[in-house]
Amino acid sequence: MSKVWILGHGQLGSMLKHAAMPLAVEAIPVDIDSEQLPELAADDLVTAERELWPDTPVTQALANHPNFLNLHVFGRLADRYTQKQLLDDLGLATSPWLLVDDTVSADDVYSKLGERALMKRRTGGYDGRGQYWLKQAEGTQIPDDWRNEAIVEKGIAFDEEMAIVGVRDREGKKFFYPLTLTLQLGGVLTASVAPLPRLKPLQAKAEEMLGKLLDGLDYVGVMAMECFRVGDELIVNELAPRVHNTAHWTQAGASVSQFESHMRAVAGVPLAQPQVKGLNVMINLLGTPRDERWWAISGAEPYWYGKEVREGRKVGHITFTHSGDKRLIQGLDELKLLLPERYGRVIDWVEDALAGG
Ligand code: ATP
Ligand code: MG
Are strands 45-48 and 2-7 parallel, antiparallel or unpaired? Predict the structure, then answer.
């Protein structure tokens, strides 16, 4: 039985472990702050559930193992500066950007990128944290503590946001999941819907873009690409070299989930084209206390992470998969009554997305 160590022990690690079991692959999420070092054997494999990690005895031990897949990719994508350079090098459309160094002024930014620009910390930002808007109309300046720490990119007036997840094996064989429409509120993924027939014309383009990245990096495993749609164009927002929240619906809605695809690629088990079982919806549970009644909703598949509930924290998600959308809407309407009021607009967004095809 092959053994795969996973750097990190959050919910993504747990879901990877869960998905590896039927493959007869032992996946072991590792707490990076543990004082106990993993007992690594020479033919074990190493992957990660996060793109950035501090130097600890555990992360050093894992990173020194010769079978840490994609090791060189993590640092490159975890730094938005080198990630943007990579996108430019591969000729992939992304929001025009500049490095925020000592010399650039807010006026330079407005003249080069337009009147609305978004500074993003080079590393460590997530869920909308580590971002700062520069708005010419308000005369926003660049605070000193953002210099040499950030990039700045043009504010994109996008029509909507979506993401694609793909997987590649050691021989370069690739499979992709359908484009997933996403709702980001305050920079946090809140809901997603896939597959939508009206997004089908964009699928080939999205696969080509992510495929270029996977091949260009000689990547093995699952990678996610978040995009903005502007008219018929896709613009890459950001990349994640790991399993991703936008494809959690694949647990219920695809013959091979993104977690299983990643573990297959890492452990060298053959990949297969994921068959999508129906129309899929995922709702993220953000700072929401666990409610047993969720499990009684027909068609609902709640997944609880077992974490302490704190405001805004991702503590679980609920997916629905249906062959037709009528029962799906019934389930969503039931769920709406059980979630805090702020979810009203989230469920409405999902139902609108379904109605729009
Ligand atoms: P994640 O948690 O997915 O890693 P993040 O906080 O690291 O996200 P981004 O995905 O870059 O950061 O940005 C979060 C959200 O901010 C996006 O989903 C989008 O809604 C908005 N956003 C980001 N970049 C731009 C842009 N250039 N123009 C307009 N809106 C943007
Ligand atoms: Mg993002």
Answer: parallel
Q: Cα 356 from chain centroid?
A: 24
Q: What is the CA radius of gyration of the chain?
A: 20
Successive 10-residue mean pLDDT values, the chain, 357 residues: 95 98 98 97 98 97 98 97 98 98 96 98 86 96 95 98 98 98 95 97 98 98 98 98 98 97 98 96 98 96 98 97 86 97 97 88
Exposure on the CB side of residue 131, measured as CA atoms within 13 A: 14
Does CATH number 3.40.1160.10 belong to domain 96-154? no
Report whether residue 237 contacts ligand 1, using a CB cutoff of 6 Å. yes
Supply φ then ψ for residue 342, to 5 degrees: -60, -15
Q: 160-355 sits in which CATH class? A: alpha beta
Ligand 1 centroid from CA 194, angstroms: 20
Surrounding ion ligand 2 within 5 Å at CB are: 226
Place of tokens 């950001």: 238
